[in-house]
User: Which sequence fits this backbone?
């Protein structure tokens, strides 16, 4: 992959030129570094669902605490998508690190920050450049809301049975 600079809709963006895909406006993940130490999101393999997000500060999170961690990047997501910030499995298994508040809306242009929770028993630390979470880009539908009566809704076999009702 190579870095390229282009002018899309009169804004300068850095984007990843994918060797087998064309990057058309609205179909690429556009990324801006907020500072020189910020790392671009990367995929660990060709089959990886998420883009690794890296820490842009040295941090320490004590057991039972949470911390909002800067990534140093802002995004423009492809049309019809949103970003879901998910935990990295290795951090979850080895250190009890989980992610909270993980939605990046398509119209958000500020720095992406990751809310990390330390559910482990040891102090967790990360330094600039450490991979701390992953960004999964998911398709989304946002239909109009129409108020209706309960009777107007289609019936299902589950009905209104709630928590634990499916086993």
Assistant:
């Amino acid at each position: 992959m190579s870095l390229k600079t282009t002018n899309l809709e009169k804004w300068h963006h850095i984007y990843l030129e994918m060797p087998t895909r064309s990057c058309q406006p609205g179909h690429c993940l556009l990324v801006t570094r907020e500072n020189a130490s910020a790392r671009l999101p990367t995929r660990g393999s060709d089959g990886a669902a998420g883009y690794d997000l890296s820490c842009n500060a040295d941090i320490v999170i004590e057991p039972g605490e949470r911390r909002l961690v800067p990534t140093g990047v802002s995004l423009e997501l492809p049309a019809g998508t949103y970003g879901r910030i998910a935990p990295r499995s290795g951090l979850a298994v080895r250190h009890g690190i989980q992610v909270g508040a993980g939605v990046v809306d398509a119209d958000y242009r500020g720095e992406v920050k990751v809310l990390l929770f330390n559910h482990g028993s040891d102090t967790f630390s990360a330094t600039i450049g450490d991979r701390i979470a992953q960004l999964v880009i998911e398709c989304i539908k946002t239909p109009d809301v129409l108020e209706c009566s309960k009777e107007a809704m289609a019936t299902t076999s589950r009905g209104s049975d709630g928590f634990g009702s499916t086993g």
About this structure: DSSP finds one helix and twelve strands in the chain. Residues 34-142 form a domain with the Deoxyuridine 5'-Triphosphate Nucleotidohydrolase; Chain A fold (CATH 2.70.40.10). Residues 1-20 have pLDDT under 50 and may be disordered. The helical segments are 89-95.
